[in-house]
Amino acid sequence: MDIEQKQEELIDHFVKQASSVTGSALSSVVADATSHPSLFAFSEILALPNLLQLEGTENAVYLDVLRLFAHGTWSDYKSNAGRLPQLVPDQALKLRQLTVLTLAETNKVLPYDQLMQELDVANVRELEDFLINECMYAGIVRGKLDQLRKCFEVQFAAGRDPRPEQLGSMIQTLSNWLVTSDNLLISIQEKMSWADKMTELNKQHKKEIEDKVEDVKRAYSMKFHPVSRPTVTSGGMRRSTPNLVE
User: What pTM, to 2 d.p., does this model score?
Assistant: First the structure.
């Protein structure tokens, strides 16, 4: 089963779970979802009305945790640790994995120094083990560890949930792509129409040439076709002799 299909099944599972409870009962659903080793998308859960209703209540912290995993990084957690629940080891691992995905969104060459700082990792060996065992083996990133240059070259990274402030630029990008696609389609149609016209003109030109060739053949045949005429021999016998018509 590929990672996309697995994600869809897990999202559907947790959406159903979260939809069936309210208030403090959502805490276990949020904890399970953010701890699951194969779930990396949370926007569908976050959009549920009963989750959004936690805003401004004593249970709003569960909404904040889900937002952290949907859009945040390990550095965001450290900056807000005082008002967020302490993460269990599986959640901490997940948030570090998500942090790598966020970094890979904007830069395909990630220096080791930056990664160690963002992930709170003490040394290169620990960092490389994390990237290999927890990221590449998990299928969320592919890349090359460059020990000489001390960087991670990203070849592929799974996408994260889009942040609300990204939606405007995403819509604009898609709109621009649509306009470009429409223009390209028009250009292709114009070239196809031109090609059809040229094909028709070539057919007409070929027909004209063939007609002229036939005319020349007929004229040649009439000019040099032998015509017989009778003559009288010395013995009084009549015979035909060819005569070329010019």
Answer: 0.70
